[in-house]
Fold each of these.
Amino acid sequence: SKDEGGGEHFVYEPSLHALAEERRQLELSLRDALNNDEFLLHYQPVVDANDHTIVSFEALVRWQSKDHGFVSPAKFIPLAEDTRLIVPIGKWVLRQACMEARKWPEHVKINVNVSPEQLLEPDFTNEVVEALAASGLRPERLEIEVTESIFLRDASIARAALEQVMALGCGVALDDFGTGYSSLGYLRKLRFSTIKVDKTFVQGAAVRNAESLAIVRAVVAMAQSLDMTTTAEGVETEEEAQLIRQLGCDKIQGFYFGRPMTGEDALKLFVQSMRR
Ligand code: C2E
Ligand code: CA
Ligand code: CA
Ligand code: CA
């Protein structure tokens, strides 16, 4: 901790110690996870809000650890970010996702999450170029997803990196919109292709709540006038899907239309629809 001289820190906290130990064990395993082939990607469909056809899949990383079993990304992604292990992991994700997307119909895109640590690496644009080249995927089919947190650190470097990726022809989505430190200033400077409205504005009681509805409506209006599309996240029910469509969101993602699935199952969705 920062204030070592504070004098309160010698109080021994067994539960904190246990947490720190668990974290240390997890970190040790995470260091070997790439070499041990313990990661895989799942893919969640993103559908057109009006006709419900699949327009994209979001790649979501999964860790099947031989030491810890299944570890949720909510747990290991922050750890990977703190330790910078997210840089090689993210590189692997990008390559793997582009390779998989190459198997899908040409109009279907792939969304890939990128952490600030990864984006701020000087080599990031090169990694995108290499992932596209290795897979043969057209740049227009790749949309990376970043959260507002990238602007908290090195805003100008983040912006430059995103502009380079856009110059390649790729899209950039602003993820979890409305949950972070929302300064709208950067929306003026960066042409995001998509704004992803966070699930807290969409789910359950939220869509029956006048304030949430007003916010979604305002975000959609703002996105439209800035020539950006909107995706609503976390749609779990038919009612939510209808409301979201009425509010004018372009795309929908959520358990109602499909849970994250293996690459094999994602591919089957297209084979089925081609047979129809
Ligand atoms: P995210 O980018 O906001 O991804 C959406 C999360 O919401 C996923 O959780 C997804 O399974 C979940 N979700 C989708 N639809 C619904 C729904 O209808 N209801 C509910 N309750 N949840 C839904 P997941 O896969 O556990 O990922 C959690 C977070 O971990 C992601 O949030 C993202 O921030 C991070 N993450 C996942 N994969 C990667 C990756 O490859 N790289 C990086 N940097 N971060 C990743
Ligand atoms: Ca995301
Ligand atoms: Ca999100
Ligand atoms: Ca998130």
Amino acid sequence: RSKTIQRGTHTLFSRQMGIEIRERATLMQHLHKAFDAGRLFLMYQPQLDLRSGRLTGLEALIRWRIDNGELMPPNEFIPLAEYSGLIVSLGAWVIRTACFAMRRLQQMGIALDTMAVNVSVVQFRQDDFVNHVRQALEDSGLSPHNLELEMTESVTMEGSRIFEQHLHTLRQMGVNIAIDDFGTGFSSLSYLEKLPVNKLKIDRAFVRQIDTPDGPKIAELIQQLGQKLGLQVIAEGIETRHHWDTLLHMGCEQGQGFFIAHPMPEEALAAWIQAHQSSTKDEKKGTV
Ligand code: C2E
Ligand code: MG
Ligand code: MG
Ligand code: MG
């Protein structure tokens, strides 16, 4: 009798797992096809100097329009791309596309400091990662100083020689490195301190916390840590004027978020930037 129960449980368990694996495999196939068919695209979210309102950069964010016209969130398909290895070619494509877009803006006379691109640790660990970056810069004609790679902290990078070598080479080339979602990962501070990075990104969760009884304490800690380590600090997820003011008050001088602008397609950037520039000029005129 106990055997039957055991067999029963086993069947149920493996059936559930089977469905999950099948669903994942199907999704993976769709993702591969979408990538090959050019159905993935990038949106760009403005980043501002919070003191002056000046536009300093853009963050490139990937989008996948699925067959029914809806967008599949990157948080759902990037892990899959990492798992299947597709992230290597996908990520190289993201870097290239973002470099070319930034270059096109420059050619229109729009000069920004940085194009920020999200990079997975899986990409960072590839032997030819730096070559991909170098090639994208060369082909697009973008200066390495205008490119920023955003990586999230991960235990898997700690002690990885190839990862550290890549970081050093990229910094030597002049490419900027930011740690994304800072404070939500698992690497040790002593390790992070040794990494050649330029910038910390305060995670959205800590900006949201400003509205809670906890207030801005974690955001403040990250700001102070960045300052002590000589790093720039940028906040993501600024949704209100109050978030902006609180961050600026604690010394955080860069930010992005829905209060400023949602991510937008490349075609919408020039008009947004123009409108933004004339509105910040008007504000200045108004205060003089
Ligand atoms: P992330 O790099 O931390 O990007 C910030 C996310 O917050 C984006 O979500 C952005 O649309 C969203 N966001 C920006 N401002 C606000 C705000 O004021 N309020 C709220 N609620 N959300 C805001 P998205 O585009 O869905 O991307 C999610 C994550 O997917 C990214 O988080 C990043 O980790 C990953 N990702 C996106 N594009 C790429 C990519 O090209 N490559 C890799 N490896 N990862 C990517
Ligand atoms: Mg990011
Ligand atoms: Mg982030
Ligand atoms: Mg985030």
Amino acid sequence: RKENNNIFVDDLKDGEKRTIPNPVCTFEEAFAHYPGIMENIVRVGFKKPTPIQSQAWPIVLKGTDLIGIAQTGTGKTLSYLLPGFIHMDQQPVKRDKRDGPGMLVLTPTRELALQIETECNKYSYKGFKSICIYGGGDRKAQIKVVTSGVDIVIATPGRLNDLQMNELINLRSITYLVLDEADRMLDMGFEPQIMKIILDIRPDRQTLMTSATWPTGVRRLAKSYLKDPMMVYVGTLDL
Ligand code: ADP
Ligand code: MG
């Protein structure tokens, strides 16, 4: 375990010891090579990365799976969105948006899905097209957008599983998967849908998980769906 100013990192890979990257103190340290991303951050006017961002970015940019535990309002969305954009841009195999999305964010509620999509559009990068898929939303309209081609899907598990079962969306093109607010998704009973969704996603994907807490159910999810993750948590956590 490594500690930097109340940011803790655990390496959950057994055996071989990996080097935990140092946290970045500035946006430049993480994104200097990606001017499009820097421009967006400068435009929004943020001063410095939040603790979870400063430690998550260098880990995720290396392609390592990540569990990020921090309270609500600590900037977890950008901790996975910005490296996600870069991942999408650097995919070795070219994907066409009509084949299916490259990035999927699963989140518990419609409100969160819409908020994440707003962030996604605010920082939009390389013209990636995003869509929000949630229960109660216009199903026909969602299907139409998926068919016309999409890069990033932000979804609640129920509706996405519905589209998947009816073969209205292809999940096999996804290489970057985020389980956002995993504790709340479990509390809402979404585990069966999450399981079915992930069955269709390629095993060599990169997977990230965020949560405000670290109960047994979330640990079980992490064990099932993440591969040798590093875990970053901010503040105190009784482990
Ligand atoms: P969480 O997912 O951890 O609950 P969010 O990602 O929704 O938190 O972020 C909460 C708020 O903080 C958002 O309004 C977001 O725009 C803002 N924010 C994110 N990163 C930074 C930063 N580096 N500096 C200042 N504000 C930020
Ligand atoms: Mg969040």
